[in-house]
């Protein structure tokens, strides 16, 4: 079988470098176009000679993101996204490719530069459909009465054009797929590609799980962990409400970044939630080992890799349907999927955990022993299958019937 020639275009890292590494291991001819320096990309197992890097874009993007403030980011957003997309499209012109795997927001110029046919043009959307995302966050802004970070009108219009131009749109969870279908996007052009995860370092020794069960059965206060960004999009308004109600009988810990939009909310939670700054992966794994439950009340997420990390750690999960939760969690066996914007449902379930310690200890053991990770080799294999079927369909004399979302 002829190796596939694939270009991955990503403004940063996301999951693209893990995917590139596994595609290369499986024999695909991969080119990575990114704004990360080559030496950093090499750390993920991607050879430098297969990387094209626009480092100046990466440096400026990080400066703007870290120190520019929301107004400056909004002003520079169009220029930065067009710059990277134009740079990538010019580099792609010299490549013989079967498929372009480019991320939304930096793909319009690429999609316009290549006509329908070969290469196959696929667009990766890491979140829900942008209109669904914007509505969810607009509602959250009204609910919280705070200016919530959400997609700009410029970005919404740009991504909608990208959706229309792409041969395929690839999403990462059944929740994200549903939002596209609900917006009227053709099912024949939509593909679901759940992510993998390298969770080996999050896999604790069995003694850690035994100690967790002993702690649960000794009726010590349950330790509840949340990891990610302390943002309104991740449901932190609800986490604050939950912690305010239960902090006397539970221990809440948050690990990750705290953006400016939730500064006041974080201040309100002082003494109720222990805040730990973002940690390297090796250190983060230790945080999971010290806790009993994983709480993730997100309003909107395309996937949420922290759920896989929690599962690998043997932590029962409480999350919402607006992420990969329904794809990963077995209801009542490895956790629960609860409605968004319903902190009372989370409070009731946490109280159930507190009252049913034997059942919770059984769930901890089952979550640990029954965990079956999806690794990156599976993701790479599934992506190649998606591309081969789409390319075969395009070559069919009648145009063929494209495979619909499974």
Question: What key attributes describe this structure?
Answer:
globular; single chain; 406 residues; alpha/beta; 6-stranded parallel β-sheet; 2 domains; Rossmann fold; 47% helix; 7-stranded parallel β-sheet
Secondary-structure topology with pairs:
Elements: E1 5-10, H1 16-25, E2 29-34, H2 38-42, E3 51-53, H3 55-67, H4 69-92, E4 99-103, H5 108-113, E5 120-124, H6 130-144, H7 153-165, E6 168-171, H8 174-182, E7 190-192, H9 206-217, E8 222-229, H10 236-246, E9 250-257, H11 263-268, E10 273-276, H12 281-289, E11 293-296, H13 305-312, E12 317-319, H14 325-328, E13 335-337, H15 343-355, H16 357-369, H17 376-395
Parallel strand pairs: 1-2, 1-4, 2-3, 4-5, 5-6, 6-7, 8-9, 8-11, 9-10, 11-12, 12-13
Helix pairs in contact: 1-17, 3-4, 9-16, 10-15
How does this structure look, described?
The protein has helices spanning 16-25, 38-42, 55-67, 69-92, 108-113, 130-144, 153-165, 174-182, 206-217, 236-246, 263-268, 281-289, 305-312, 325-328, 343-355, 357-369, 376-395; strands at residues 5-10, 29-34, 51-53, 99-103, 120-124, 168-171, 190-192, 222-229, 250-257, 273-276, 293-296, 317-319, 335-337. With 406 residues, it is an alpha/beta fold. Residues 399-406 have low confidence and may be disordered. The strands form two sheets. The chain has a seven-stranded parallel sheet with strand order 3-2-1-4-5-6-7, with helices on both faces. Strands 10-9-8-11-12-13 form a six-stranded parallel sheet, sandwiched between helices. Helix 1 packs across helix 17 (376-395) and helix 10 packs across helix 15 (343-355). The protein has two domains: 5-196 and 375-395, Glycogen Phosphorylase B (Rossmann fold, 3-Layer(aba) Sandwich); 200-369, Rossmann fold (3-Layer(aba) Sandwich). The two termini are 24 Å apart. Helices cover 47% and strands 15% of the residues.
